[in-house]
Amino acid sequence: MAVFEPEAEGIVFDAEETGGDIVGRSPWALAGRRLVRNKLALAALALFVLIVAVSFAAPLYSNYVADTDPFASNISGTVTLNGKTEPVLQQGGGKLGLGETPIGPTWHSKYFLGADNQGRDVAARVLYGGRASLEIGIGSALLASAIALVFALVAGFFGGWTDAIISRVMDLIWAFPLYLLAISLATVLLTAPNGLKIGFIHLSAGSLWVPLLIIGLVYVPYIYRPIRGQVLSLREKEFVEAGIAQGASNFRLIFNEVLPNVASTVIVLMPLMIATTILTESALSYLSIGVQPPQASWGTIIEDGQSLLYTRPWVAIAPGIMIVLTVLALNVLGDGLRDALDPRSKVRVKG
User: Nearest Cα to 300, choosing from 312, 291, 310?
Assistant: First the structure.
């Protein structure tokens, strides 16, 4: 009889997870240990936490460091640098001196990254814009995941007409181009004379809840599909059939048997969805149908700096860098979570 030898087949088992130290440990504890050993994922998590912390500290920076209101025009303002008073909006260059150019990066506490064409502190606006972008990105990803999870559990577990109706509705939303659907919804809601009214809930056109709801709703099918497929597979597993044979209710089967097994999929999708929703919010705000003035987001700041690319490029570069770092950190973190929560990661195949 042939004997299977893992090393001969090029398969190496993780020694730390093949010993007796894993006895009695839950799958979540083992996943946590794998994540802790992934230094790149931990670095991405630290970077994302740092971006969140710095962005939500925007009021502290604005009040105690920059000492300026990032939402009020400061066209005639001045700033003292090295004992010399400089206008925030400087006379244009060239022999004729036409127009006005915002002050560039001072690398001091005030106007660290310079000013925009209305004399507002760019660094303070980038921090406030990051807070708005993160609130909308995280909130819309949580909303989309919650709605998709509920519908996927119901459709995948009960099947039949329930699955057919829910899936066709999701296919209908999926059929529309993502940004075209988001732009259409945003245009309707932003041009409504009295804002958005749902029962006793009233949202003004400038509320951050408007882009949050729009982005959250259009991304529901993107999360619904993979979760529904996993629920359909779990519905046929032996442990679910054993629960049915023992007389367990559908509610108990869904929440005690199916939901814990799809939770890891939702956790892995979450960082990737946050990165996607932040990009979507930035795109909509750049088109002036996302975050509305006087509030700011990374997308609106890039739009403000478009006319200053040749003279004060940092107005547009700074929020762009923040978007890139945030999306990169979330994608790397998502890959690390996938490797940690995937049981097959315990086995490594030699290249």
Answer: 291
In a domain, 164, yes or no: yes
Contact 132, 60 (CB under 8 A): no
- Asked if the model's pLDDT at residue 152 lies above 70, the reply is yes
pTM summary value: 0.87
In CATH, what number is assigned to the domain containing residue 244?
1.10.3720.10
Structure-block tokens of residue 288? 């002036």
Q: Are 106 and 123 in contact (CB under 8 A)?
A: no
Domain span at residue 175 reads 42-54+128-299+313-349
Place of tokens 């001045």: 78
Distance CA 129, CA 148 (A): 28
- Is residue 261 pLDDT above 80, yes or no? yes
- Burial class of residue 93 in the structure, from the number of CB atoms within 10 Å of its CB (0-12 exposed, 13-18 middle, 19+ buried): exposed
Query: What is the pLDDT confidence band of residue 351, given thresholds at 50, 70 and 90?
Result: very low
Greater confidence (212 vs 350) lies with: 212
For the chain, the domain total comes to 1
Residue 208 maps to a domain = yes
For residue 305, is it within any domain?
no
